[in-house]
Structure formats: structure tokens, C-alpha cells
Amino acid sequence: MLHKKDFSRVEEVWYCAEEDKPIERSDIVKGYEVEKGEHITVDDDELKKIAPTTATTMEILQFVASDAVDPLLFESSYCVAPEEKVSKPYALFMVALIE
Fold first, then answer.
1. Which of 35, 38, 64, 88 gives a 20 to 30 Å CA spacing to 74?
2. In the 8-state DSSP scheme, what is residue 9?
3. Please, where are the H alpha helices in the chain?
4. Is 72 helix (H, G, I), strand (E, B) or coil?
5. Assigned domain for 6 exists
6. DSSP SS3 for 12
7. % the chain with pLDDT above 70
8. 38 pLDDT exceeds 90?
9. 75-94, pLDDT tens digit by residue?
10. pLDDT at residue 8 above 70?
11. Is pTM, for the whole model, over 0.70?
């Protein structure tokens, strides 16, 4: 992302509201609020263990015409890409969609 005025890079600043100061990304952990003001932390391995099968699988249930989708849903865009091990089936699927 670039600043519109001078095309300089825009930096993301991580900020601690409690200490009222910027912090380094390395000082950030993932967590969940279990009660108001009470949090637990989780690491990537724990998240992988509880991830549903849909976290790595995309199931296509139906196709719809683009004019049948509310334009508000196009406000955000997403990029879907495969892991390297399934890139060929994904590429074939993309060709089918384009055709």
C-alpha cells in the first residue's frame, strides 16, 4: 500500500491500548477473551489441532449468476490460492470457471 500523496510505503503500526504506545509485532500473541477482561492465549499448534476440516478444504455447493449477488458483498475482495501440492487441480478448476 502506498500513500496517495507521495507514493511512500504505508507502515502498519501495532499499538497497545493499555500502555498507550506502539509495540513490536514480536510482542503480539493470539488469544481469546473468555470473560470480560480475562483472556487466554493460544499458539498456532493449538489452533491447527482444533481447526475444522473446512479450514483446508473448499466445498462448492452451487454457482449463481453475478447479478444475483448483492453488490454490497463485493465491497471486500478475497484471493483464493492453493497450496503447492494441489496447484494442478486448482488450475484446471480455474480454466473450467473461465470457460
1. 88
2. B
3. 44-50, 87-98
4. helix
5. no
6. coil
7. 97
8. yes
9. 887 777 777 777 788 888 88
10. yes
11. no
In single-letter form, the type of residue at position 39 comes to H
Read off the C-alpha cell for 36.
Answer: 470480560
Per DSSP bridges, beta strands 21-23 and 38-42 are unpaired
Closest CA relative to residue 31, chosen from 42, 45, 23, 18 = 42
Task: Tell me the β-bridge partners of 32.
Answer: 40
> Which residues form the domain of 58?
14-98
Strand-pairing partners, residue 16, are: 21
Residue 9 lies in a domain: no
11-27 pLDDT, tens digit per residue, is 889 999 999 999 998 99
Residue that the C-alpha cell 494442478 belongs to:
88
The answer to whether position 2 is within a domain reads no
Report the run of H or E that residue 97 belongs to, with start and end.
helix 87-98
